[in-house]
Amino acid sequence: MGILDHIGFAVSDYAASKAFYEKAFEPIGITLLMEVGAEATGGESHCGFGRQFPEFWIGTGKPLAGCLHVAFTVDTRAEVDAFHRAAIAAGGRDNGAPGLRPQYHPSYYGAFILDPDGHNIEAVCHKAT
């Protein structure tokens, strides 16, 4: 079992970030699973992405000051590559091309993208091949 149930944060442009994540997450099997409007929360809108349950949430409100780093585990290196391509095509900025990062461990294969707010979003595969 993981140590986190979910994470969420406000973004500066909800619609743009929602569209970015929908496109960037598609190749790694993460989809928009839930959206909660301002009428249900008393003022802010939120949407949750995940594979089975919404685990990654973005919403309206005061955006974070500074940069957040979130890494998503995938099963294959090809998924890391596909995530990087899709996130770039969706408007993300490259923050580390797909490749081995042996400083973490010999099989660590990851790619890093800056989202519309500059948050460092990563896809990582820990398998040897």
Automatic annotation (TrEMBL):
Instruction: Supply the Pfam families for this chain.
Output: Glyoxalase
CDD domains per UniProt:
VOC_like
Please name the InterPro entries in this protein's record: Glyas_Bleomycin-R_OHBP_Dase, Glyas_Fos-R_dOase_dom, VOC_core
VOC domain residues: 3-126
Top-rank taxon, per record: Bacteria
Record-given protein name: VOC family protein
